[in-house]
Design a protein that fits this description.
The protein is α+β, with helices and mostly antiparallel strands. The chain has a domain of 136 residues: 2-Layer Sandwich (D-amino Acid Aminotransferase, Chain A, domain 1), CATH 3.30.470. The protein has a five-stranded antiparallel sheet with strand order 13-12-11-14-15. Strand 2 and strand 3 form a beta hairpin. It is globular. The two termini are 34 Å apart.
Length: 315
């Protein structure tokens, strides 16, 4: 696991994605919370396995392998498998189910060519492009209105952000601008705050054709484009989205090929609409500062949905 990271200019750098992690107090607090939660999940899983010893059901546990990368315990799918009674194996030939796991926005050519030849059903096997421009195009196709704007002709404020996930480098620009930056997209500025003080991202996990739980990530204006949450709450899809909105969210997931992962959704308090601004197929799971009991409740909800979905996928 140490090889997943390198050290550069006083910060950790994730080798696969290039994301930079500040080594500050919040980071070490998050690591401690994540480690504690992983240990708790592992203990629950071990206890369940012991209780199943000698039972005929023990031999029926589905086996899952990751390709081409192995998901580390801090990714959501790892605790979900532990709680769903899914055994993780290393050899795809031994698996009943595969999980396409590549922590990059755009699948490499060799990955694309290898996936169709693998021996078992593949979760997220069609989710090969989650670059923000592609997210914007699929969003327009499904919802019928635009997230992205042309910054050369748009008049007013917009958000400039990297195509890549995990950068958290969004900034407000006033359009029209003279020229665009390569590797960046330009999106309408979503008014996801009712009073201008607290900005809320609606983190929406997807498992198959379900939305098992929802997380509200609250931030201040100065941190609205970062990954620093002042407060996180657990809620439900029914509390946050209308039935029609939920239908469109799941249709979007199907179009982009997302069977397990997370979306960041913003609601604009001016026009009342929702906007899917980000998709993550290698979701890190509930934010670390979600209360422990809520985190475990949420992961169990994800696991129950995944258990059903895995059976459907293998059928």
């Amino acid at each position: 696991m140490i090889r997943d990271f390198t050290f550069e200019s006083g910060r950790l750098v994730v080798r696969q994605t290039g994301a930079h992690i500040e080594l500050n107090r919040d980071f070490f607090t998050s690591v401690a919370k994540a480690g504690s939660f992983i240990g708790e999940v592992a203990a629950i899983s071990a206890t369940r396995k012991i209780k199943q010893l000698g039972k005929s059901s023990a031999s029926k546990r589905p086996r899952l392998a990751f390709v081409p990368m192995v998901a580390r315990p801090w990714y959501a799918i790892w605790p979900v498998c532990q709680l769903a009674g899914v055994d993780l194996v290393t050899d795809p030939a031994d698996a009943d189910l595969l999980f396409y796991f590549e922590d990059s926005e755009h699948a490499l050519a060799d990955t694309r060519s290898a996936l169709p030849g693998l021996p078992a059903p593949i979760i997220n096997g069609q989710c090969l492009d989650i670059r923000k421009s592609h997210v914007g195009a699929i969003f327009k196709k499904v919802f019928g209105y635009n997230l992205e704007i042309d910054p050369l002709t748009w008049h007013g404020d917009a958000v400039e952000k990297s195509e890549m996930n995990g950068k958290h480098d969004g900034r407000i620009v006033t359009c029209p601008i003279q020229e665009t930056k390569p590797g960046y997209v330009y999106q309408r500025l979503i008014k996801n705050s009712e009073g201008g003080e607290v900005y809320t991202d609606i983190r929406t996990p997807i498992v198959g054709s379900t939305i098992p739980t929802v997380f509200l990530k609250h931030r201040r204006q100065e941190t609205r484009f970062t990954n620093d949450n002042d407060k996180v709450e657990r809620t439900t899809a029914d509390a946050m989205f209308s039935p029609e909105e939920q239908k469109l969210i799941l249709q979007f997931a199907q179009e982009i090929g997302l069977e397990f992962g997370g979306m960041d959704i913003l609601r604009d308090h001016q026009d009342g609409r929702i906007y899917i601004v980000d998709v993550n197929k290698t979701d890190m799971g509930p934010p670390t500062n979600l209360p422990r009991t809520d985190k475990l409740f949420a992961m169990k909800a994800l696991a129950e949905s995944f258990k059903v979905f895995a059976k459907e996928k293998m059928a």
